[in-house]
Amino acid sequence: DIQMTQSPSSLSASVGDRVTITCQASQDISNYLNWYQQKPGKAPKLLIYDASNLETGVPSRFSGSGSGTDFTFTISSLQPEDIATYYCQQYDNLPQTFGQGTKLEIK
Amino acid sequence: EVQLVESGGGLVQPGRSLRLSCTASGFTFGDYAMSWVRQAPGKGLEWVGFIRSKAYGGTTEYAASVKGRFTISRDDSKSIAYLQMNSLKTEDTAVYYCTRDPGSGSYVYWGQGTLVTVSS
Lengths: 107, 120
Hints:
The complex is a heterodimer of chains A (about 110) and B (about 120). Chain A is mainly beta. Helix content of chain A is about 0%, strand content about 50%.
């Protein structure tokens, strides 16, 4: 199975800060990488697909980059409503696997 | 509007069985694969498995942790996907989500989730 190592596991930042989360795959997954946002008690929401494509309706402050084994997710200016847990997911190989999540809090 | 509604969760003893349903609306159900993803309390997301559309043989794939115990099926006439869970273990306790799978693994549409608690 492909292991997805996400870091950090938790992050505290101030409104307006630039926030970056990284995800490393245990093998080359090309660009088959998604990013999800999950708020407490809710289903995950797809933000970024194919590593760098913004899902329809998602604010442009969210972005993703990378290919191969190293990926980055960025919030350019943190907003209060961005408080959530973020997950990366690879779908290059079965089983699809998720990172362990990054819990984002407001400082 | 695409909607997915899971049902069938609840409290079940270890070793027993439970069947979850995912009722879909707002799209042509038979055109899509359907996946199940679970989340143990306070933990991350785990892909459980999926069923392809009939056009792709209606075949299934499973995570190793559930293979041989869980079975995914579909009834396209009713727009329902099922997750039959047998020989349940305490570690199967989780919220179970169904998702519409466009074939790319990018899950845009999710149900609200249904909680399965395996405990004696």
